[in-house]
Amino acid sequence: MADKINPVDHRILKLLSKNARLTYKELAELLGTTRQRISRRMNRLEQSGVILKYTVIPDYDALGYIHVVLGITLKPGADVREAIEALKTDEHVKVIQRALGSHNLVIHVIGPKDMRELERIISEISKKVPAIDHMDVTFITETIKFETL
Amino acid sequence: MADKINPVDHRILKLLSKNARLTYKELAELLGTTRQRISRRMNRLEQSGVILKYTVIPDYDALGYIHVVLGITLKPGADVREAIEALKTDEHVKVIQRALGSHNLVIHVIGPKDMRELERIISEISKKVPAIDHMDVTFITETIKFETL
Asked: For a Cys-Cys bond, which of A50, A98, B20, B83 suits A45, CB 3.0-4.6 Å?
């Protein structure tokens, strides 16, 4: 990070975390500044990688999908990067995060409600990562709160 | 869901999952339809709850925060709703999800990098839910992929 994150950046991010579709104009009005300044700060946050993505959080159940979180613990000494490379291009794997603690790798799978088909997908994923020691499988049934900042 | 989700809705959601800041105009051009139709479909998706939120995914490390996922297993027979109510208003708890499987409850905490302070925050959270049987603590160190659809 070449640029320091200033208090205005924090306020912009907080507002975008509640509604990422706020326009430059709306953000400028909420923060008592100009559209130009908002646009310039947001461009910097995007280019420096502080903002990874603007996205939509859907209700998977309403769309006919199941959201599964796989908490993966690799065997001692296993290469996490190898596991990540093997999973990156899997169309069912939507989120990949490196981690420390109970799990080394957290993966989100969005799959069909058909449990047999879902079993096949998860089994395919685990075959791609031979270094898996243990995998916690958690089905998300309802999102009660979702904020990012 | 009174309204059926049609193929256009799916395509809108897919595009918004990649970039939630796309304008009605940009979405209309990408999908070969009108701004009016995009606006109408998006309003329906928002009002019916299919779209829970438009948000920003930040790089927590760059902002000076640590992102912790708590996978909570409650004691058999415990009331998940009670646990949710106790955690809802906690300012450090950003995500609360009901779940089935390895964990009954998945919680995301955004806290400071100071490990002593973080320990205090997690300890406060676990005190609020006396029905906790087991808690997996996972520190997210890097987000490699983040898609929602």
From this structure: A50
Range of the domain at A103: 60-140
Task: For residue B18, list chain A residues with Cβ-Cβ distance below 8 A.
Answer: 53, 55
Are B144 and A93 an interchain contact pair (Cβ–Cβ within 8 Å)?
no
Residue B148 lies in a domain: no
The pLDDT value recorded for residue A3 is 59
Task: Please answer whether residues A100 and B138 qualify as being in contact, where contact means their C-beta atoms are separated by less than 8 angstroms.
Answer: yes
Contacts of A50 in chain B (CB under 8 A): 58-59, 62-63
CATH code, domain with B25 = 1.10.10.10
The answer, yes or no, to whether residue A93 has pLDDT greater than 90, is: yes
Number of domains making up chain B: 2
**pLDDT 10s digits, B46-60:** 999 999 999 999 999
- Are both B21 and B89 inside the same structural domain? no
**Torsion-angle region of residue B92: left (phi > 0), alpha (psi -120 to 50) or beta?**
alpha
Give tens-digit pLDDT for B68-78: 999 999 999 99
Minimal Cα–Cα distance from A69 to chain B, Å?
Answer: 9
* Residue B55, in any domain of the structure: no
Q: What is the largest CA-CA distance in chain B?
A: 54
Interface predicted TM-score (ipTM): 0.93
